[in-house]
Amino acid sequence: MNLKVGDKVVVIAGSDKGKEGKITKTFRTENKVIVEGVHIVKKHQKPNGQETGGILEIEAPINASNVMIIDPKTKKRTRIGHTTDNKTNKKIRITKKSNEKID
Fold first, then answer.
1. Per-residue pLDDT for 103 more than 80?
2. What is the tens place of the pLDDT at every residue in 54-102?
3. Is 50 in contact with 57 (CB distance < 8 Å)?
4. Among the residues of the chain, which ranges form H helices?
5. Residues sharing a CB contact under 8 Å with residue 54, sequence separation 6 or more, in sequence order
6. What is the C-alpha separation between 52 and 43, in angstroms, rounded?
7. Would you list the domain boundaries of the chain?
8. Distance between CA 63 and CA 56 in Å, rounded?
9. How far apart are CA 59 and CA 6, in angstroms?
10. Which CATH number fits domain 1-70: 3.30.565.10, 3.20.20.105, 2.30.30.30, 1.20.120.140?
C-alpha cells in the first residue's frame, strides 16, 4: 500500500464517491484506511463507569483501492510512483501526473 497517514485523498468508488479528506489511520495487513469525514457509521455504545451510552457516529475503514491521492500541483487525483533521490539515494513517492514529490 502506497498511502500514508496525512495524505490528502479522494474517494473514487462507493457511496461516498467524490468526497475528499485526510487519512487518519492505515491498516496495512487488511489493506484499509480511515479517511476523516468519509464512511460515517453509527455505533451503539453501552454505558460504562466513565462514559455515558448512546449512539455514536464514527468513521469506518474503507478499502485502500477505493481512494486515490490528490496531486499537490494540479489538485486532481493521480497515481503514485516511486523513484530514488539522487542526493540521499532513498526511495521517494512521486505523483504520476506532475512528477511532484509527495511528502
1. no
2. 999 999 999 999 999 999 999 999 999 999 988 889 999 999 999 989 8
3. no
4. none
5. 45
6. 13
7. 1-70, 73-103
8. 22
9. 16
10. 2.30.30.30
Looking at residue 86, what is its pLDDT?
Answer: 86
pTM for this predicted structure: 0.83
pLDDT at 71: 93
Distance CA 39, CA 32 (A): 12
